[in-house]
Amino acid sequence: MEPEASTSPRPTLAAVAARAGVSVSTASLVFSGAGPVATATRDRVLAAAAALDYGGPDPTARSLRRGRSGVIAVVTEDRLVDAFRDPMNLAFLDGVAQAFGDERTGLLVIPLAAESGVDLSAPPMDAAILLGCSLDLGASVEVLRRRRIPIVAVEAEPFDGVLLIDLDNRDASRRGAEHLRELGHRDVATVTLALDVSRTPGPLTPELERTATGNTTRQRLAGLRDVYPDAWGWSTSGSYLADGYTAGLRLLDVPARERPTAIVAQSDLLALGVLRAATDLGLEVPRDLSILGFDGVRLEEAAPHEFTTLVQPAVEKGEAAAAAVFAALAGGRPEPVLLHCELRVGTTTAPSPR
Questions:
Q1: Domain 71-167+314-339 belongs to what architecture?
Q2: In this predicted structure, which of 218-232, 268-282, 297-311 has the lowest mean pLDDT?
Q3: What is the pTM of this model?
């Protein structure tokens, strides 16, 4: 038998204050912790609350009074199960959380994957951080603008009224490609992140590049093309090890004369997949094949190798995004931020074998 829903009205702070013999403002201080209250008074208020089964101020009413929900949203186009498997996303969220400090603010992660059915016009939020590698940022910006809240976009193309926290994706990729050129590599291929909202894996074609909507993907590809304009490759559905493995097989399971001597992967997880494919095909890295990653993730699964990669400041990126949000909520006009990657040479690159 289902229990009957309670019809008793929610106990109020005023009722608690009356029972404890204190003013409503004093009772409020006990629950908010915003000011000093004598220990005896505090104990009396808490005892009255327990007797009335009062659990604290109504968060909905409090939000209406303040005009704020106390929530900052981080919007990702990945499914949650995938977003939290990506070390870069976790490091970014660590940075956001660190920037929160003692702020009385909640963090809401919103997945915009097609199957989630989430409508950005509905969830409570005071500001939104649009996570990097977005493939359809314009649609999210349009909805959030109507809510008149601060919007911070990470690694995105510029939008009016949207604060940008950017990464030097093109310059970093160029530096990585120059490292391969200095090692004598001429036949270079790439494994990219998703190019557009379809996230359909397949050969990298001029048409796909021309219509690509993923800003991070396009910028990293442009940096490679600055050095290797004729590089060919494979596009994936995202930064997933399985996609990197499939791409590696596609690029490497060919006659030796057709194989690239180096592969540039747009994430370390993709690079790990390529490494596993090369190993399964009997190729030795870096003697037969050099692999360049991006992100700077320490992957135990790559042992005994350590990837040559572009190390990005993911935690600092999260801190910068959160700091911009709090500055905007306080009425400030935060400036755009550009963060820089560093090339870390590991054991997966060596002179070209031909």
A1: 3-Layer(aba) Sandwich (3.40)
A2: 297-311
A3: 0.80
